[in-house]
Specification:
This protein is α/β, with parallel strands linked by helices. 43% of the residues lie in helices and 11% in strands. Strand 2, helix 6 and strand 3 form a beta-alpha-beta unit.
């Protein structure tokens, strides 16, 4: 039985708080083009929540390309350089609708807030969005060894907040992230498509639809249904 007293929220970054997936896609697309093949936005869905190294491994398989260890490292750097160029255009206006309000309401309720993102650029993006101050802990691609769907990222986040997994809820837009949350014993709110994220405890299209009161109501409905 899940503890109804939720004391912490763990947010994924890309796709939950902001839409950086499109910049990752453009940078990877430029890289695959450089390597002599192309990949679609649909295929990019597979890369959501996936670490930089695992993403390049996936793409090389897709394009049937082989690289030396040195080339692999160089291409990782190149992709990130292009990604950093693209996100230069980001401002606090790139925060997805309803996110700021949700963070403010959660803080007012005394709930701890953590970040659980696979991105090594997460601290820079939080700063750009002007929301770093909301976070009691930041767990990103620099702090973990096993990427989603391994639950390490969220388990480490909960421990940083001094909470147990059953006291926290994870917000995720990627199937690998939903799997990671569930494997760690967390409730998980899927942000995005109901069909894709059907394993999540409940799914909302975004924080425009999910304000803090709706979230609390959904949680108690869920608890009652157990
Ligand atoms: P970086 P999330 C993930 O962030 C992205 O969804 C994924 O597309 C990206 O490859 C990964 O971060 C690593 O990002 O190259 O910036 O370290 O969704 O876990 O917040
Ligand atoms: Mg994500």
């Amino acid at each position: 039985m899940h503890n109804p007293a939720i004391r912490g929220l763990l947010f994924d970054l890309d796709g939950v708080l902001c839409d950086t997936a499109k910049y990752h896609y453009l940078a990877w697309k430029r890289l695959t083009n450089e390597l002599g093949f192309d990949f679609t936005e649909e295929q990019n869905e597979e890369l959501k929540g996936v670490s930089r190294i695992d993403s390049l491994t996936y793409l090389l398989k897709l394009g049937e390309k082989k690289l030396t260890v040195e080339q692999f490292e160089d291409f990782l750097i190149l992709k990130n350089t292009w990604y950093l160029e693209l996100i230069k255009e980001m401002t606090p206006n790139h925060l997805l609708p309803g996110v700021l309000h949700f963070l403010e309401s959660s803080k007012k309720e005394g709930i701890k807030i953590g970040l659980g993102s696979s991105s090594k650029n997460a601290p820079l993006i939080l700063k750009t969005l002007n929301i770093t101050g909301f976070f009691d802990c930041i767990v990103d691609g620099n702090s973990i060894t096993k990427s989603k769907p391994n639950p390490e990222i969220f388990l480490f986040g909960a421990s940083q907040l001094n909470l147990q997994p059953n006291e926290c809820v994870v917000f995720e837009d990627a199937t690998s992230g939903v799997d990671a949350a569930l494997a760690g014993g967390f409730l998980c709110v899927g942000i995005g498509n109901q069909k894709t994220l059907n394993k999540a405890t409940f799914v909302y299209s975004g924080f425009k639809e999910l304000d803090f009161n709706t979230f609390v109501k959904s949680l108690s409905q869920y608890e009652r249904s157990l």
